[in-house]
């Protein structure tokens, strides 16, 4: 693979950087317009973009109307294209510009695709609007009128010409793009739909698109949906404010979407030229198409249309030497929306999903009581809140939640205090059972050294306690005709951080099984911050959030009120492991790519802002730390933990990347090896080269 210097270059991890230029233009002045275009081309190349898209008819301006029938304007447009070609020889950049071209007896609204002095192809506009303010059929012919498949232009022969051209890089097959022009996107079945099925991962749109009230929102909807349906990136370049104001106005709105998600957009109503940059994840698009088998079914259904595409292959020199981070911000907490309004909406929906699942299970079984173990930690706290709200929905008293705190040999004063206080403020029926006597009986049965006064804190010592807690809960549920509500979360399942069978892996209904630890922390904080419960309850929740995460199975110092075991010191920081989990299960990324993204996100505390995470809890990690914990994750996730996930109890799926249930998102053999993932981890550098960031 790449050396350690190249590791820190985004082009080595399935990304490409693209640009959209919105040049300042003068109507019917190709000389001025090409100068502004070339300036943006050079800026894009300096930023190490590999593709630059420009607006519809940008070399002449879109709003020339009948001036398009003037020979002088048409010839000057070709002269401008000559200048683009000449400049492109010195730039490592694919350039897509718009201009009018007379081919045979017709005039076409075209996109010219240029790379290092060569015209790779020319694409005429398929659909010409001729309604309301648009009169394009007055000047132009649609692509279907073309009678030739190639043309001669700027001294080059046999240039591919037509509406079904697919451009693909020979040395990076996932870098394949298709060009359509403005109105082509507005029709019921855009040409880019079939192009995506033919293999285009980047869909380019040269547009003019004047602005009216609310139109920019409609553009967003169109592009977001088209990119999502096509599992593609969609680049959209609209004409800027220099267009004619005779009857219209222009806002220069450029956008980049990737699979329905906005990656970047320009400022609107800007009076100077501007360049928009975006880093696109080609691996993500390829993974999504591979996983979503209805995409391949669509390919089968539209096979004849797809066969009509012509593929233009070319060799491209990607700027993959030296270091180049992603400018695109990847959330450190991919399970937690960064936008406050979205977070609030998601929190409410998550609770409703869990409540609906639990309500249905209770109604179906006819059970009206819940048994739950309360540790004073995050998982059981969230599960108890869900249980309380489910009881409210069923119009049952919260006293029918039978909550048990089960202190053992390592239970700290802090967590025991948390548990007692939580049960009181929730209003459930609170119980406390000391499990040490039953554990000691088990140690006697096992003849464990602990029963003879030897402080042997082995796995058996730990699992006896976890088993006794679960055994008590199930027998209590039998006795009270109740349902045992599981509290373990997605992060613990991913890392195998649970006791199998008669342990915290098992329950009657695993309410938290698709919620990772980082999201649980935020959900509890959201309940407190938004005053979902009373003031007294909020104090308890904040105390729980500030308690060290621990299984509390090995005793520590007698005078300490905090747990001795630190979970994150053993299996890694949950914020990193949840990051690893998301990009492993949701997209199937290589460990090297996950590490690169993690480093881009976590190496600098000043990058990004996460208001939902207290400043004191915002961290940074070196590439060496990221590598170490990713190795722990890969081994635990792929090699030693699947058997625990293969038989987890029923649980409601919450998020698109949030289930490891074999009946839901994830199916895997229980006896697989982690060898290939660990080999990729070894390719991650331990340090950043001295001349690095």
Please sum up the structure shown.
The chain contains 23 helices and 20 strands.
What's the topology here?
Elements (H helix, E strand, L loop, with lengths): L3 H4 L7 E8 L7 H17 L4 E3 L17 H18 L5 E10 L2 E10 L2 E7 L11 H4 L10 E4 L2 E5 L4 E5 L2 E10 L9 H8 L3 E5 L8 H16 L2 E5 L17 E4 L2 E5 L8 E8 H10 L1 H9 L1 H5 L2 E5 L25 H26 L4 E4 L4 H16 L7 E5 L7 H14 L2 E4 L3 H11 L12 H22 L2 E4 L3 H6 L13 E2 L6 H13 L5 H11 L21 H5 L2 H12 L5 H12 L20 H18 L1 H4 L29 H8 L11
Parallel strand pairs: 1-2, 2-3, 8-15, 9-10, 10-11, 16-17, 16-19, 17-18, 19-20
Antiparallel strand pairs: 1-14, 3-4, 4-5, 6-7, 8-9, 11-12, 12-13
Helix pairs in contact: 2-3, 10-11, 11-12, 11-16, 12-17, 13-14, 16-17, 19-20, 19-21, 20-21, 21-23
Secondary structure: helix percent: 25-40%
What is the count of distinct domains?
Answer: 2
Roughly what is the average pLDDT, rounded to an integer?
93
The end-to-end distance, rounded to whole angstroms, is: 21 Å
- The backbone outline, from C-alpha atoms, is elongated
Record the strand order, biggest sheet. Answer: 13-12-11-10-9-8-15
Structure characterization notes:
This protein has 693 residues and is α/β, with parallel strands linked by helices. The chain has 2 domains: 16-314, Nitrilase/N-carbamoyl-D-aminoacid amidohydrolase; 340-682, HUPs (Rossmann fold, 3-Layer(aba) Sandwich), CATH 3.40.50. The chain is 39% helix and 16% strand. The protein is elongated. The protein starts with a helix and ends in an 11-residue tail after the last helix.
